[in-house]
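Chapter summary example: a protein plus adenosine-5'-diphosphate.
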Amino acid sequence: MLNVKNLHFAYQKTPVLRALNFNIQPGINTAIIGESGSGKSTLLKLLYGEYDLDSGHIFWKDTEILGPKHNLIVGYDFMKYVAQEFNLMPFISVEENIGKHLSNFFPNEKKDRTAELLEVVQLTEFAKTKVKLLSGGQKQRVALARALAQTPEILLLDEPFSHIDNFQKQTLRRRVFNYLKEKNIACLVATHDQEDVLGFADQIIVLNNQTIAAQGKPEDLYKNPESALVAAFFGEFNQIKNQFIYAHQLKMVNKSDIKVMVKNAYFKGSFFLIEASFNSKTIVFEHASKLTKGDIVYLEISK
Ligand code: ADP
Ligand code: MG
């Protein structure tokens, strides 16, 4: 397993992470979430051995992950890392990039493996295309396939679907995460996109104020968010009577002690998000139909 013990790290004089402790079992999908600048990318780079820790230890099974001071070549065979800025070779084709680290001694295996990976990232028709001719999202998919080529035991993904358009994102996500489960590859995904997390992550680590602010199963954090930061990750929410109440947990009723005045209604597809004022504060709730500005309505919390 991955074992992080009392990790501390600063860039020169800027402290970024302090006293991190966590374990990750083989085959487990972990989402690292947190605001921009909270240290998600830095954590992945440290796990990959790109920098030296100020103190603490990182182990994968019995191997200690060491930074450049102690390890001449960054990286380990059992671990792959796909950076936010994917470092591909622009002047060779997609399939050559993916096959870069696959042995030429077994040409048939190499061919089959490359075809399988092209299928996973949905780039089969671009196999012969030079990488420099691809869009940002297509390059991101090549980088993913290349990282998977040698079936690592652990995969570090930094905002893996950020450049991919919405038409392909959902199916690609399902394909990639299912593939990782199938091959029992542990994966850490740094993201601020809840779609990368819900339905896929086995556990979530929330970074805030340089440390782990919360950690747990998505369902548990969702039901009991404990902080506004965690609640906000799951969607629109309110703080009512010292509780975090998601917008969809407020229902309109004939009479209640939550009397609000409608300010705005936003079309969201299957519902309208209604903005209303309640005791001079703004609250949000979901409703099946549009409500009119100025309407007085009553709400009830349904959990
Ligand atoms: P995230 O990925 O969560 O957005 P980062 O890990 O990229 O956060 O950054 C964490 C903090 O470290 C930020 O304050 C950022 O400005 C700083 N930082 C990131 N990379 C460097 C670097 N190479 N040198 C100095 N500071 C950095
Ligand atoms: Mg980042």
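Key point: The chain has seven helices and 17 strands.
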